Amino acid sequence: MIDLRSDTVTRPSDAMREAARDADVGDDVYGDDPTVNELERRAADLVGMESALYVPTGTMGNQIAARTHTDRGQEILVDDQAHVVKWELGGLAQLSGLQVRTVDCGERAVPTPEQVRANLVDEDLHRPGTGLLSLENTHNSRGGVAVPVAHVEAAAEAAHDRDVPVHLDGARVFNAAVALDVDPADLVAPVDSVMFCLSKGLGAPVGSMLAGSEEFVARARRTRKLLGGGMRQAGMIAAPGLCALDNVDRLADDHANARALADGLDGIQGLSVPTPDTNVVVVDSREAGLTGDEFAERCTDAGVGCGAFGEYTTRFCTNWDVSRDDVDEAVDRIASTLA
Ligand SMILES: *Cc1c(COP(=O)(O)O)cnc(C)c1O
User: Fold this and answer.
1) 116, CA 20 to 30 Å: which among 51, 79, 285, 294?
2) What's the pLDDT tens digit per position in 187-232?
């Protein structure tokens, strides 16, 4: 099977397995794990933040950020297609008691400053007040869109003008930086905290990072403990995470493969595929008379893993374990199954 379901499906490299075996470890809840400490230091530097926290998953990182930035009962302002709204089990409500206010950001993927201003709520006798603006880059559900610095900046500035902090769900923020050819630190500079995944395109088996100011990360560390995310000899999994930080430039290969895949699939009768910004390819199969579910099933039966995305759309995600030859083979298999 050519597995294009997600960039999370990659297996750790030999170097990562060796790094895990050889990792210098200690009890990280006591701050004693040198490998975790190094990972947190390097991750913070990479995104130009003061400090960073190692967390088991991106979901936990986002939820810790939301809880740490806000007070119970406040509003969080977010795009209606955001991962934190769609795919995190209503955690914003369950774990932080937040009221979610969504806006439709369309292809821009982040709100315009006008949308931010119009949807921020000032606290008064009747209204809870907005506690956080949350952005996403790249934007997964909108097709791996790489949001340019200026749009992140404009949204963040509109929130900051009203003293509302800004979190970035940057699960794939390095994909955005590579696609836009900007320093990740520049992309993240307008926001107060960022979560990014080590376990997606960067190839680590486990783990994500939550970065921000020293003061924010100190409080986030307590929230992580509250949610049960305080880990002990975590250097065993942090060591492959350190290897993963060296894989940022490699993401360009996934993007080139995604463009080749999109090109190839767009050439098949009945399929319509926009050119992807990054490693997420969204295929529309309406013209072929197939729903997303039906098309995904046909692809899977033909040996190409993917997932239904919308009523008539399917998502393919290029990754480290998929070569250019695999992509060409995937296009051939899908063309045959639809012929
Ligand atoms: C994958 C993803 C997450 C969550 O990461 P997990 O490690 O799977 O919990 C959060 N946000 C976005 C945009 C993602 O794509």
Assistant:
1) 51
2) 999 999 999 999 999 999 999 999 999 999 999 999 999 999 999 9
The 3-state DSSP class for residue 191 equals coil
Provide the pLDDT confidence category of residue 330 given band limits of 50, 70 and 90.
very high
Mean pLDDT of 304-328: 97
Length of the chain, in residues: 339
Is the distance from the beta carbon of residue 142 to the nearest atom of ligand 1 less than 6 Å?
no
Q: How far is the CA of 99 from the centre of ligand 1 (A)?
A: 21
Superfamily of domain 251-337: Aspartate Aminotransferase, domain 1 (3.90.1150.10)
Nearest to 116 by CA among 85, 159, 79: 159
Domain boundaries, the chain: 14-246, 251-337
Question: Counting atoms of ligand 1 from 1, which one is nearest the CA of 82?
Answer: 13
Determine how many CB atoms are found less than 10 A away from the CB of residue 15: 13
Ligand 1 within 6 A of 141 CB?
no
CA-closest candidate to residue 134, choices 100, 94, 87, 106: 100
Rounded to the nearest angstrom, the distance between the alpha carbon of 339 and the centre of ligand 1 is 35
Residue 176 C-alpha to ligand 1 middle, in angstroms?
A: 15
Asked whether the beta carbons of 319 and 197 are under 8 A apart, the reply is no
Pocket test for ligand 1, best of 57, 83, 224, 280 (most atoms within 8 A of CB): 83
Give 26-40 pLDDT, tens digit per residue: 999 999 999 999 999
CATH class of the region 14-246: alpha beta
Separation CA 305–CA 296 (nearest Å): 8
Give yes or no for a contact between 172 and 197, defined as CB atoms under 8 angstroms apart: yes
pLDDT at 35: 98
Residues 6+ apart with CB under 8 A from 266: 272, 273
> Per-residue pLDDT averaged across 243-270, rounded?
98
